[in-house]
Amino acid sequence: MLVFPNAKINLGLQITEKLSNGYHAINTCIYPIPLQDALEFVVAKKKTTFNSSGSSIPSDGKDNLVLRAYKMLKKDFHLPEINIHLHKNIPIGAGLGGGSADAAFMLKALNEYYQLFLDDSFLEDYAAQLGSDCPFFIQNLPAMASGTGTDLKAFDLDLSGLHMILIHPGIHVSTQEAYAGVNPQTPEYDLEQLLSSKDFGAWREQLINDFESSVFEKHPLLKEIKEELYQHGAAYAAMSGSGSSIFGLFETKPEVIKPLKDKFFYQTMAL
Prior knowledge:
The protein is of the alpha+beta class. It has helices at residues 65-76, 98-113, 120-128, 136-139, 175-180, 191-197, 200-206, 212-218, 220-231, 258-261, and strands spanning 2-3, 6-18, 24-36, 38-43, 49-54, 82-88, 143-147, 151-154, 163-168, 236-239, 246-250, 265-270.
């Protein structure tokens, strides 16, 4: 079975408090975008294997999230051994949720192919055990995320007709590093109301990713890329998640920004 896990961006990211368990409470809008990996599995003749192509996946000594998703379902259901291949196109560690999407799409594909008849709520419970972004990709529709990111509420936001330039400069910002520089605070603006306005002037002033302040201080190149997107006509630009991808939204198809395209991972897409 072949599926195509897609990436996401964050529209606004408010860090509201530090919880007693050491995690942080956030408020953000997660929006799917058409940048995709390719994930395939077939029944294995012997034991389960995992391999990948495309962008190199760094090893942390643990199973890849895709393999962990398979093993999680295999514990509860009679699944055969399989061979898994993942082609990585979504930049890794970029705030785009690529690894989370791969894991969630694996859960959905196994559920469909082997007719496990799990509804979305059960799949989201499994996904939450793999990572805070994973549950979003089960329904894969615009949503408001709160708590540690796993409390999802469907949100009616449609950006179709807009164009996006997405840039990943190859800078790695660890989640630990990103959170170390933030100061949780009560949000100044109502995120849902602000997003619903689709007022890009207000978005530029008020739709803030709280990670940007500290991350841009350590990595000024990211701020420069954001400013470059505005200089070339972006209606709105921001960092996604804890970084380091920067995206710009344009009301008309943008011209190629050659200095950025020549240096970095650079994708233009219609939303």
